[in-house]
């Protein structure tokens, strides 16, 4: 049956058949969905030919930018040779094995093993089970509880959504599951009060020690955190935060889990976020920049402390996915990492475009509506404020953030709004001129919304 009628009316077909994630479908069907047709470099184009500078790299993930045909060619070669085989029952495939070596080579001396998944959420549920299996194998089975953070994000699977600190997710489906508790987040602008950022960083880190004391150290398996919270609003912790977290985890014998799904693969100007903050985690979920989103793949970096127990004590870890280490996805990821390495994109973020972005994006702090303009590497946020002199927030943060986002989008720039924070996470290949364009359109959007609010 010809698909011409459907293709000519994709929005109507989408409304009739496609349920979108994190979307109010009634509103979307009324507004109509936007068909994104192709991408090139840091730009995407919709089905009407409108061009957008993708200041969000898809969903934090298109690190090498769009249109890199080398990846399609690598995927096609693998697909034509072997489109799929599994890694259960004593088998593997060449790209899966080579990718595991390549990922570990960038993760530092303590990481020599990776467990592959299809997404970041599956990586969350994988390490969640690994942590409990690890403690049981070393004779401390009561160490089951995971401590996570309010406003953290770790995906949409049951454990991932439970460890996430988003109340609106917990309300749907009776989460969090037993064995997951939350402490505060290092969000100084909103919660620091009269403390300096450094004082606040120590205070909120020490909530971890208080929670461990409350639960009993012998009941706590792990603490999980994103190096920089992404979906929570690009919350960059004060300098005192991570050293104190690392000290507490070591002193109190709980596993430290660094969620690298966003911060990994160059986003912060280092291969992984934990390296940027000088931390040595025990486990680290990965996804997104691993393949730059060209094909779905995720995983868990497993430190020697954990891997040695799984190899020598646990025996069979009864966990895994049909597509764990999918050969075509692995081939695409290998090519993606080759591009990141050969074009020195991590170093570029650290030494060139990251500092350039910080200066340009930081200049927006002079706007009456901007309370802070912060960034690390190519991950930035604008905190919108009703009164920046007192850090007073807007009454309707979501409405303000959406208004700025929609204005930017109408003028050809994709930004993410989470409440009253405007988030940027452009492809690592973005040029200086494109950063200038991002900032120009963002400023225009701020001017327009601020003027609307005062009219
Ligand atoms: C830190 C972190 N951990 C786990 C996940 C889950 O990964 P998957 O989506 O591949 O299952 C994420 C994902 N992060 C994510 C996903 C979708 C939207 C947004 C947003 O900020 O709007 C963020 C993430 O940001």
UniProtKB/TrEMBL annotation:
Keywords: Aminotransferase, Pyridoxal phosphate, Transferase. InterPro entries: Aminotrans_3 (IPR005814), Aminotrans_3_PPA_site (IPR049704), PyrdxlP-dep_Trfase (IPR015424), PyrdxlP-dep_Trfase_major (IPR015421), PyrdxlP-dep_Trfase_small (IPR015422). One of its GO terms (cellular component) is cytosol. The keyword Transcription does not apply. Its EC number is 2.6.1.-. GO terms for molecular function: pyridoxal phosphate binding; transaminase activity. Belongs to the class-III pyridoxal-phosphate-dependent aminotransferase family. This is Putrescine aminotransferase. It comes from Rhizobium lusitanum.
